[in-house]
Write a structure and sequence with these properties.
By secondary structure, the protein is an alpha/beta fold. It is built from six helices and nine strands.
Length: 230
């Protein structure tokens, strides 16, 4: 399985506006740069040490309107390899930083996050990917274990693997086979929307609940938790 990671990043002047009460504009931009660098370095570490499928709790769809209880399937697919890391953004500085850190820069041509991800999915498919991992730039506590688990779920037979935020409303990571019929629904309530779309399309779904991936830095409270964990 050839696996590509996609990291979408908003242009720096408009990034993390919800942190205005806590950070000045230049501080917010520096925070985004720092989080992006952390995410890329973690992905690069996994790229240099190929992922191995790992056993763990899988929530598996068993019908068009059902997600069942936890099971522990054995790995049945080939060992996944994280072969490319794409950073998609409209911001030239972000793209330059991505290249400097060893990722591939993709100039965003759309106007929404979901259109940017569709663009990246098409580019990854043309580059030979079998599946993609969507990893936002604002999950700085991401670990190689997270990547291994997400990749392993796809290798073990899931069509879709998804990591929710702490409130189980947003999507903090998503892996999907390119052959799966799934529309990107990032935004409000995206975790439930992604799961509902997957069930509707009779896809096998794995939910990865991770304390490191559950934290996305959007609010002053999130920022305090990140600083405490760093």
């Amino acid at each position: 399985m050839k696996l590509h990671a996609v990291v979408p990043v908003k242009d720096l002047p408009h990034a993390k506006s919800r942190l205005q009460p806590a950070l000045a504009p230049d501080q917010r931009q520096n925070l985004v740069r720092d989080m992006l660098a952390r995410v890329i370095r973690t992905l690069r570490a996994c790229q240099l040490a190929p992922c191995s499928p790992s056993l763990g709790p899988h929530l598996v769809g068993t019908g068009p309107a059902h997600v069942a209880a936890d099971v522990y399937p054995a790995a049945t697919h080939s060992k996944p390899t994280l072969s490319e890391i794409w950073v998609v953004s409209r911001d030239p500085e972000v793209l330059a930083l991505a290249t400097q850190l060893g990722a591939r820069a993709l100039n965003e041509t759309g106007y929404t996050l979901n259109s940017a991800l569709e663009q990246a999915r098409s580019v990854a498919r043309a580059a030979g990917a079998d599946a993609v991992l969507i990893i936002p730039a604002d999950v700085p506590l991401l670990t190689c274990t997270d990547i291994t688990t997400l990749a392993g779920a796809l290798a073990d037979g899931a069509d879709l693997v998804i990591a929710p935020d702490e409130a189980e409303q947003g999507t903090n990571a998503l892996g999907v086979w390119l052959s799966a019929n799934l529309r990107f629904r990032f935004g409000a309530n995206s975790f439930r929307l992604h799961c509902a779309d997957a069930v509707w399309n009779e896809l096998i779904v794995t939910v990865h609940r991770s304390p490191t991936l559950a934290l996305d830095v959007d609010t002053p409270t999130n920022l305090a938790h990140f600083r405490a964990a760093s």
